[in-house]
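Sharing a chain and its predicted structure for anyone who wants a worked example. Both blocks are below, sequence first, tokens second.
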Amino acid sequence: MKTRAAKQAGAGMVITLAIAAVLVPSACNERFKVCHGGAECDASRGGEGNEGGNSEDAGMTGGDASGGGETRGVTGGGESGQTTGGPVGGEAGAGVGGQQSGCAEGYTDLLSSSFTFPDGEALGTADAPSFPWAKIGGVAIADERLTGAGTAIVGQGRRFALESARLRFRARFTAAAQQAAVAVNAAADGSGGVRLAVHASGKIVLSEGIQIVAESSVGALKTGSDYFVEARFQDSGTEVVLSTVSYGSEGDSVNKGMLSAGPWLATSSGFKTSVNLSGSPGADPSIDDLAFSECGADAAAYEPVFVDTFERPDSTSVGTPDLPATHAWTASSSAARIVGGALELSQLASARVLVNDLPLDGLRIRATVSMVGMLWMDINYNVAHDMTTAIVAQGFWVWGPQSDATFASIFRGAPSPETFAGTTFVDGQPYFVQFDRDGGVGSLTVRSGSYAGPIISTQTDPSLLDTDSTGKYLRVATETGIETATTRIEELRVDRYGRN
């Protein structure tokens, strides 16, 4: 899987653009010393000779307010260098943030998503935490970007604080009548929240719910180009920078425009982040490289609920898991046994263990599995002690190969297996199966190499129900019915994303 940094490298083209006017609550933006409506603002230093004024301190009294022409320093008297999208009077191409990022401790990502999943209707999961994406409308993955027309929704794990935070995403448009918007602290259906929208026609809008906090005109955006959007939220207000090449706080960015808002009270209390894309058929906008970060925060981590590495002597008794080591596995027959540091299952064998109720929000189940002859693994959770039919309870299965395909399904919503043509499993090769669930949405992904390796199959089910929980057991099984086929589970763990 590509990282967000790898996807960002080389993504933008250098475009010389003029700075747009910034909408602020008063006539002067004291942070950037940009003036509006004929107001006069003090400037502590202007440009000297051909040097542009300092990006924080330069005045505008002698220059073109668009920032694209010449700007004369107030005290220096000489002609400044031409600005390239930075704050008026600033150095050409300089990022607005840089040393001014306002976060000496460094930002910590609390949510990130690069959308590096195979092209198709299944949106997969965010990178961290790996919560599944749900959708409304016609959004899909294409070329490792979220594209289409509709809304994608993912859990945050908690409400995000906006006192010292940063939101970033990268947008691309194919027509003028398009927009891309990201909202944090949104409702379960993706509505409301603190929303930042970029319109290809040339506008940035910051809003909360139906209330517009601030908006700014930036001039029409070029189609087919990547635009980097960075918003920094502080107690003193909010600053948004739209740029090309890289994000506004990075030194090589080329600024397209800015938006500033004074202090405002954000009251949205939802636990979702939503992405809304609007366009026209055959000409859709796209977004990727999404991240919300807090300054100096400690990111919540996945906390182990159940772990079994099966590293114990060969035995027809499955034994006791590593965590919690309070209840032993119960096997259906000797066809479920420990061999070579793995749980081997053959024919129609199963095993179950008491683990109490597993959480349905922020749940992650991981299994490292290999095979001899054929792979077939069922995993059920929160089921009764006497449950015997996998597809009628919460869980999933992965099996194959058969007829040049592998198969997988999330139960209770999609009981018929989904076919992944042209994929296969190979004897002795480990595969990494991950199931993520947040509320009623589940995502199942099978990879080779590692849990970040190449994807063999992925699917999403948005129709899971809390009422499907019928007990406190975790169950694994195989259903090949073939005596010579063996499924080997080398490690099984269940984690829950912590709320801090």
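Comments welcome. The chain has three domains: 35-94, 99-295, 302-497.
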